[in-house]
Amino acid sequence: MNTSPLAHTALSSPTSATTSDQVPQPAATPPPMPGSHQVAQPGMVHPSPALSARGLLMTYGTGGTTTRALDGVDLDIARADSIAVMGPSGCGKTTLLHILAGILEPTSGTVHHDGTDIATLGDRRRTRLRRSDFGFVFQDGQLLPELTAIENVILPRMLGGTSRRSATAEAASWLDRLGLAGMHDRRPTQLSGGQAQRVAIARALAGRPSVVFADEPTGALDQVTGRSVLQVLVDSCQDSGASLVMVTHDAKVAAVCRRTVAMRDGRIDQEFVRPAAADETTAAGRRPAAADETSVVGR
């Protein structure tokens, strides 16, 4: 799917609830505003879920030509956790990512973010959610070629209402942390593939999102560059306290995440948990646990 969440713009803020002159009634707790998410402590996995999906069903087509992309998926993603979604082409992994991110609406089932059902948010609030609470890294980066690196990073922040000065300072800090000092004014065509993906990572993490979604983030890179970019992505999410949800077909890429779910025919078939992965990916010179060191939970 080529539609980028960055293309959506928020036109207005939700209206406030009106008060009543009648006898006061107990007020319902309003859903949290996008951008008011709880920030997890960097480097620690928190048990409460940032995202919770239940009974996700997604079908395409009508009549006798329907295709079931998801068939009853339940999934919790803890704050500051990292999870890889694996499976063969057509298993539903990218559809799952797009539904979790609020880009697609499921045929049935729910996705809750910080306790709020995403489906209950209007289009404007979902757009605001994707700008303020979610970050995105795609296989090809989806950088705008006419903008410089720093302009690509600040664009979604400015669309969300952040001042240019504040967004620029934040973007410059992230670009420098990701090894792009001195390259702020380069356009995507003046960057290597790995450098361009680092710009995409900076764009995803600017504003401290609660969840970062990555769809085959190293798929267009060579093995050495891909490994470097992948480690930058995982380490940056851990440092900022963001949850990472990554779609991949590569077991070596999935191994950097603490959890891996393997999908088949629209369902979660197995789950692999690497308890030590979060600690090992931040320790100098140490690698995440290998596949044969994981615990396997069947579905």
Q: What structural class do you assign from the helix and strand content?
A: alpha/beta
Separation of the first and last Cα atoms: 28 Å
**Secondary-structure element series:** EEEHEEHEHHHEHEHEEHE
Number of helices: 8
Looking at the structure, what is the overall shape? globular
Q: Provide the gyration radius in Å.
A: 19 Å
Largest beta-sheet characterization: 7 strands, mixed
Hey, roughly how much beta strand do the residues contain?
A: 15-25%
- Count the E strands: 11
| Range of helix content | 25-40%
Overall pLDDT level:
80
Major beta sheet, strand line-up: 6-7-8-3-9-10-11
**Ranges with pLDDT <50 over ≥5 residues?**
1-37, 277-293
Write a structural description.
The protein has 299 residues and is an alpha/beta fold. Helix content is 27%, strand content 24%. The protein is built from 8 helices and 11 strands. The strands form 2 sheets. It has a 7-stranded mixed beta sheet with strand order 6-7-8-3-9-10-11, sandwiched between helices. It has a 4-stranded antiparallel beta sheet with strand order 2-1-4-5, with helices on one face. α3 (149-159) packs across α4. The longest helix has 18 residues, at 223-240.
